[in-house]
Every structure is written in C-alpha cells, then in structure tokens.
Amino acid sequence: MPHIVCHYSVPQDMPPLRDLLLALHHAAAATGVVKAEDLKIRALPFSDYLVAGEQRSFFHVSLYMLAGRTAAQKLALSVALREILSGLLTSTYSISIDIRDMDPDAYKKRLLD
C-alpha cells in the first residue's frame, strides 16, 4: 500500500531514474516500517520550477501510508530515504522527504485477481 511519489527537476545530473527508484525501494523496505512487496513508487519530472526564486535542482519524495506508524518509524523512513538520495544525488541543491498519513477509513483500492 505505501506510495512513494517523487518530484524532481530536469535537467539535472543524476543516475538513471530506475536506479534511483530501486534505491528508494530498498532503503524504505530495509527500515522494516514498510514491506517491499507493498511499495508503489513513481516519479514526475518538472521542467518549470523555482527553488528559492531560482532554477535550482531539487528532488522531493512524498511517502503516503496508512496511519498508525509511530513518530520514530516515520523518522526512520525519512532519514533512510534522505541518506540514500544524498549519496546518489550529490549535485542536487535540495533533497526533501515528506511522510504523510492516509486515513484508513477513507482509503480504498481495487486489485485485479
């Protein structure tokens, strides 16, 4: 169920996007807070953007998951994701992580059999 949504600036010097997404997948799963088989990860590039009023590179991650994790668990996820990205995106000006709780009563999904 957890969703990782990435927003990033283009152009920017970075490894292949698939490698970044896999690194995020492994880092999130390694925390034990989320299960690898439940993760959904996607990324959206932005060519029009401003950071602090200038066109500076950024990579932002929003992680959405059902409410119920502790503050310590969310912190562990945030730190793990920031650390992996910091090592891979060494020339990116801004790297940010946002952990969001989803209302388990309002969240609905459908899976094919």
Number of helices: 2
Q: Give me the CATH architecture, please.
A: 2-Layer Sandwich
SSE ordering = EHEEHE
Query: What percent of the residues sit in helical stretches (DSSP H or I)?
Result: 25-40%
Overall tally of domains: 1
Residue stretches low in confidence (pLDDT < 50, at least 5 long) are none
- CATH homologous superfamily classification: Macrophage Migration Inhibitory Factor
- Morphology: globular
Q: Biggest sheet, in brief?
A: 4 strands, mixed
Quick one: CATH class?
A: Alpha Beta
Number of strands: 4
CATH topology: Macrophage Migration Inhibitory Factor
What structural category do the secondary elements indicate?
alpha/beta
Radius of gyration: 15 Å
Strand content: 25-35%
Rounded mean pLDDT is: 95
Spatial ordering of strands, largest sheet:
2-1-3-4
Distance between the termini: 16 Å
What would your notes on this structure say?
By secondary structure, the chain is of the alpha/beta class. It has a single domain (3-102), classed as 2-Layer Sandwich (Macrophage Migration Inhibitory Factor), CATH 3.30.429. It is 28% helix and 28% strand. It is built from two helices and four strands. A four-stranded mixed sheet has the order 2-1-3-4, covered by helices on one side. It is globular.
